[in-house]
UniProtKB/TrEMBL annotation:
<comment type="pathway">
    <text>Cell wall biogenesis; cell wall polysaccharide biosynthesis.</text>
</comment>
<protein>
    <recommendedName>
        <fullName>Glycosyltransferase 2-like domain-containing protein</fullName>
    </recommendedName>
</protein>
<dbReference type="InterPro" id="IPR029044">
    <property type="entry name" value="Nucleotide-diphossugar_trans"/>
</dbReference>
<feature type="domain" description="Glycosyltransferase 2-like">
    <location>
        <begin position="6"/>
        <end position="133"/>
    </location>
</feature>
<comment type="similarity">
    <text>Belongs to the glycosyltransferase 2 family.</text>
</comment>
<dbReference type="Pfam" id="PF00535">
    <property type="entry name" value="Glycos_transf_2"/>
</dbReference>
<keyword id="KW-0328">Glycosyltransferase</keyword>
<dbReference type="InterPro" id="IPR001173">
    <property type="entry name" value="Glyco_trans_2-like"/>
</dbReference>
<keyword id="KW-0808">Transferase</keyword>
<dbReference type="GO" id="GO:0016757">
    <property type="term" value="F:glycosyltransferase activity"/>
</dbReference>
Length: 438
């Protein structure tokens, strides 16, 4: 019997999944079987796979779209039941190099204390720039940090990164670990499911690693529709759920403050830019998290995406020459992408308009007329009217926190009560674990 059961989750990405399969078939080892879980695609994916690869690939057809977590778990359960030693999960838009499977299998064979291993992932359009090389879950800022993101690969990048979790676009896990910890949380539907899986594996006493010998490129949603607020809804709802569920008891108050502040800032920022659907989606995601609503989004949750950077573009279209004190290369790259022919002058050129780059324009306390303030989300502060609007930010944020913190903590208590007792061998039932280290 082969030792690796490869699970590829697919939904309406026919061309990508065919390329993903082909990359697997070119691997240096052949000790695997391929299972494609198709989430009720309507683009002919399943037929195309059968036509091109025949019995080389087993296609499992779900009757409905179960999302990334549900799709992967469908395959994971089969791999565990059939007795494979390892499960390898691949996103349909990931392409592994020929040594990736061999390297991950070898690493797990030699390191029995490791319960999950991922690859070094590169951007598809610039294959020497790292997209991610492990992930860290920050329980101070209550967010996830992508390690080595947008770093040029070099000898300075370590060969092994021990971390909190790795992205499920390319990951290998021993089935013996899955029998103890379980699979991904089905009810996430998509996003933060791989975060929670890796985190629970680490909390069960295993190490989680990403290794440089296993390489892959990943589109990372370059082809995902951006015409709606799909990403915003699931990212925010599932992030709230993760930290409500897994934060240590003693840190719940701090978590509630930080996350509510973060939510309000994002909503305020969206309203500031006229992104009313985006702001509404964030508040809906927050409410659903409080209400314990899981799974696929109900009707009316995903709205037309009105996200924009029109103010940034309009202002820089009027400028011909600017001077910048810091992060010149970052701004140059943005202007190039947006085809804005603005000259960045020397710092001493007083004829150039001063542009101040900051972490958030919402934090500007002293607006100086004549300056243009921008931040890394491409928000702009450029006039007295905007400055007056921003002056009310701190007070409004404090009021939002005062109005919501008690309700947030009560909802957190209710949600945590559902996950008190770990359930062993849960993968076949699809139950969840509470993996906190209080």
């Amino acid at each position: 019997m082969k030792s690796i059961g490869i699970v590829i989750c697919n939904y309406n990405k026919k061309d990508y999944v065919l390329a993903c399969i082909q990359a697997v078939l070119e691997s240096s080892i052949k000790d695997y079987d391929i299972y494609v879980v198709d989430n009720a695609s309507t683009d002919g994916s399943a037929d195309a796979i059968h036509k091109q690869y025949g019995n080389t690939v087993t296609v499992i057809k779900n009757k409905m779209n179960l999302g990334g977590s549900g799709g992967f778990n469908t395959g994971i359960r089969i791999v565990v039941e059939l007795g494979y030693t390892y499960v390898c999960c691949l996103d349909n838009d990931a392409m592994i190099d020929e040594k990736a499977l061999e390297s991950m299998k070898c690493f797990l064979n030699m390191n029995k204390d490791v319960g999950m291993v991922g690859a070094k992932i590169y951007f598809s359009k610039n294959t020497n720039i790292i997209q991610q090389f492990g992930l860290r879950i920050d329980f101070k800022k209550f967010q996830a940090e992508t390690l080595y993101n947008e770093v040029e690969d070099s000898e300075k990048v370590p060969e092994i990164v021990y971390c909190d979790t790795v992205a499920a676009c390319v990951v290998m896990v021993p089935t013996s670990v899955i029998k103890i910890v379980g699979g991904m949380p089905d009810d996430n539907f998509i996003y933060w499911d791989d975060m929670e899986w890796g985190y629970c594996i680490k909390q069960a006493g295993y190490k989680v690693a990403a290794i440089g010998k296993a390489k892959a490129i990943h589109e990372m949603g370059a082809h995902i529709r951006k015409d709606n607020t799909f990403i915003q809804y699931y990212m925010w709802r599932n992030r709230f759920h993760f930290f409500m569920k897994h934060t240590k008891e003693k840190d719940l108050d701090k978590m509630s403050v930080k996350m509510l502040q973060n939510l309000f800032e994002s909503v305020f920022e969206a309203m500031y830019k006229g992104e009313y659907n985006v702001s509404q989606t964030l508040l809906i995601a927050y409410k659903d998290a409080l209400d314990g609503i899981r799974g696929q989004a109900m009707e009316g949750r995903i709205l037309k995406n009105d996200g924009n950077i029109k103010d940034f573009i309009q202002i820089f279209q009027k400028l011909t020459k600017i001077r910048v004190e810091s992060d010149v290369s970052w701004l140059q790259a943005i202007l190039k992408i947006l085809s804005l022919p603005v000259t960045i002058a020397e710092g001493s050129d007083t004829s150039a308009v001063p542009v101040k780059i900051c972490s958030s324009v919402l934090r500007i306390k002293e607006y100086q007329e004549g300056n243009v303030y921008i931040d890394y989300d491409l928000n702009v502060l450029n006039n007295k009217q905007d400055a007056e609007l921003i002056k009310g930010f701190d007070m409004a944020q404090g009021l939002f926190l005062y109005m919501n913190q008690y309700l947030f903590l009560q909802s957190t208590k209710r949600i945590r009560s559902k996950y008190r007792k770990p359930i062993a061998n849960n993968v076949l039932q699809g139950d969840e674990l509470l993996c906190q280290d209080d």
